Amino acid sequence: MDLTQGTEQEKTARSKKMMLWFGIISMVMMFAGLTSAYVVSSERQDWLNDFTLPASFIWSTLAIVTSSITLFIAKKQLRANNRKGATYSLLATLVLGVIFVGLQLQGFEDIINLGFYFTGSESSITTSFIYVLVLAHLAHIAAGLIVLLVLIYNHFKQRYTAEQMLGFELGATFWHFVDVLWLYLFVFLYFF
């Protein structure tokens, strides 16, 4: 397919999707670097081998996976011109995103209550890496929550229709990416 062909609208859509994927690829590279550094650092003598993630991180994983499902349902509802169903699904996605953040913060509190800190004399390289990975992901989740708010705002302004879904698809792609990214980080941290 020749990328220079098509209507102006089709070319604009392709360029927006390509820019989103460039951003996603750069974020993947950043987290690949961080997890690689984690693997290399795990060979250090001061690495904590008996550290396990608190249960809050398991529950947050369930919340974020469910949020991807509700956003997928919202997209199906929009395509079917069911605005009410799309509204409920979008709001559920936002609530689940906020629950995810709350559970992540609870996970940090649990880590601190176990006596592990990010900095200071009680800190360790292991917990410092966990904080960096999770906080970097939470920054992307914050961006994702802003994206969800924009999707909800545009939905209420009736900017999405079965024929005009580009903005919704871009926002949904980003949200699904941060969800998959967390799944990768959770599995990595839980099993490595």
TrEMBL record:
The chain crosses the membrane at residues 20-39, 51-74, 86-108, 128-153, 165-191. Keywords: Cell membrane, Membrane, Transmembrane, Transmembrane helix. The keyword Nucleotide-binding does not apply. It is a multi-pass membrane protein. It is found in: Cell membrane. GO terms for molecular function: cytochrome-c oxidase activity. GO terms for biological process: aerobic electron transport chain. The keyword Acetylation does not apply. It comes from the Bacteria. One of its GO terms (cellular component) is plasma membrane. Residues 1-192 form the Heme-copper oxidase subunit III family profile domain. PROSITE patterns: COX3 (PS50253). Its main location: membrane. It holds the Pfam family COX3. PANTHER family: CYTOCHROME BO(3) UBIQUINOL OXIDASE SUBUNIT 3 (PTHR11403:SF2), CYTOCHROME C OXIDASE SUBUNIT III (PTHR11403). Belongs to the cytochrome c oxidase subunit 3 family. This is Heme-copper oxidase subunit III family profile domain-containing protein. It comes from Croceibacter atlanticus (strain ATCC BAA-628 / JCM 21780 / CIP 108009 / IAM 15332 / KCTC 12090 / HTCC2559).
